[in-house]
Write a structure and sequence with these properties.
Protein name: Stage V sporulation protein AE
Keywords: Membrane, Transmembrane, Transmembrane helix
Oligomer: single chain
Number of strands: 0
Structural class: mainly alpha
Number of domains: 1
Order of helices and strands: HHHHHH
Helix content: over 70%
Strand content: under 5%
């Protein structure tokens, strides 16, 4: 049990360290860093490397933004196998729609209850 938590912490922390290095060393903006990490997750899933990482690190690999890229490619590939080219587009939205919808809904609820300072 301890090993599971340890490796989730190490792998998730390593992904965050990569993002921080992108900020500090390469002086990338948050948008560039976010996009790059999503693309890295997508590429890793395209080569079949992200699922073994999830099996090994658990939440350490599913919580960071790289998992969003993994979800996009994973959904597209699954649906493409079933429905062809149309499945590529629908698969991306089918797998990620609940997370995106939750972010929009909770962001809206937060905006109702809290006022920005400025």
């Amino acid at each position: 049990m301890f090993a599971t938590f340890f490796w989730a912490f190490v792998i998730g922390g390593f992904i965050c360290v990569i993002g921080q290095i992108m900020f500090d060393v390469f002086k990338l903006t948050p948008a560039h860093t976010l996009s790059t990490l999503v693309v890295i997750g997508a590429i890793l899933d395209g080569f079949g490397l992200y699922e073994p990482l999830i099996a090994f690190a658990g939440a350490g690999a599913t919580i960071p933004i790289t998992s969003f890229g993994n979800s996009l490619v994973h959904g597209a590939m699954e649906e493409a196998a079933q429905h062809g080219l149309v499945g590529v587009l629908t698969g991306m939205f089918e797998v990620t729609s609940s997370g995106i919808s939750a972010a929009i809904i909770f962001g809206f609820i937060g905006a109702i209850f809290f006022k920005p300072k400025g």
